[in-house]
Amino acid sequence: MRHPNRSPALLLALALSSLTAVALLRAAALVGHAEPAAASEDIAHRFYAAANAVIQTGDPAPIDAVVASDLVAHGPLAAPAPGRSGLARTLFALHATAPGLQLVVEALTASGDQAVARIGIEGGTRAFLGAAVGVDQAAPWPALEVLRVADGRIVERWAVDDRLGDLRPLLRVPLGDLPAGPAVVGLARLAYAPGAAGPLHTDRGPAVALVEEGGFALRAEGPAQLLRAPAAGAPGPWRPVPVGTEVALVPGDQILLPAATRRAFRNAGRGPATLLAATVFDAESRGLGSRVLTGTLPWSAAWPVRSWQGIRVQHIAGGVATMLPGEGCTIALGRAALAPGARLPLVPSDGVALVAVEAGTLDPATTGEAARARPGAPGEAPATLNAEAALTAGDGVLLGEGRAGALGSAGAGPVVVLVATVTGASTR
């Protein structure tokens, strides 16, 4: 899929005009010599070619020659980490979730050390979230982008608001077959203080985790799978975790843990370390029966302990039971940023989506089954959520199968949300 047709000349003119004031204010502070326009244009084209190479192969080496190590990116979803390494993690996430995706330079112009590009997307724009969240108009890359060049490399990036949501994939993991009855999808962030170590434990269902910050040591006493981030060495496919041996984890690593596998995480670094985790577990065993979407669940059922000896569990969203696709399930996780007035379209699906607001005010204007999924709060009956049901930081909403509409920014500032989807084989 590609962005809707717009006039490239008009878009580029608007982008340049919107950055004129910034450029004038920064002119005196810019470091390095100004690149001729032709050189800036050439480097910009090389940048997108290198980015596509990383998406295809998972090897971050191609961007080394065209991106400065201290790259500065502007925008709420600029990168999961600063510098070139943050961009590498973004591209590796695209490789892991949508390797067929390609960035298409639809128009590009340069003036001095700055280049402005209109970027289209081909292939994979809906696949990485399993079609549970429609991204016909929202893409995992800004439609308009401004690049600043110095010393032959990209040193700064701006994403230009075009009123469409910006959706970035974080992980996409096959879970296999799940129980056919009602289940609960939950999201949590686990923060480990320096030296903190958790006990060996199991979960009530399969769990996936993404290392967000710091370094961990994982010990698994059973089957587990690991997908390495590019910074941890040559990227490759999912590999089994050695049983009974601690394995070092770095930011960007992804872990799949079956429910029965005993596991323990330890902060192996000197600073704080965090995991972003998603789990799916059977609601029948928690006494919810068939009360789909309307059933409530104490959020402690997924991660029973909120804090334990230097480990703090932030329950992001969950607590509502729903029916999941039973066969060939895949769980995917993405982060979306919406500028004021921007919207992220939804399309009907037989999967479910759990949306958690991290910042700002969200308007989940949808049709079909939907229920609030605020941690620790009762689930609401299936209802159409509209502008009167705006969600703020700490709120969540579970979107059932068949819903459509859009997620929109309802406030004066940007909105950042986490979107977790569970889809079956027919929707991937």
UniProtKB/TrEMBL annotation:
GO terms for biological process: polyketide metabolic process. Keywords: Signal. Residues 1-23 form the signal peptide. Gene3D superfamilies: 3.10.450.50, Jelly Rolls. It comes from the Bacteria. InterPro entries: Cyclase_SnoaL-like (IPR009959), NTF2-like_dom_sf (IPR032710), RmlC-like_jellyroll (IPR014710), RmlC_Cupin_sf (IPR011051). Coiled coil: none annotated. This is SnoaL-like domain-containing protein.
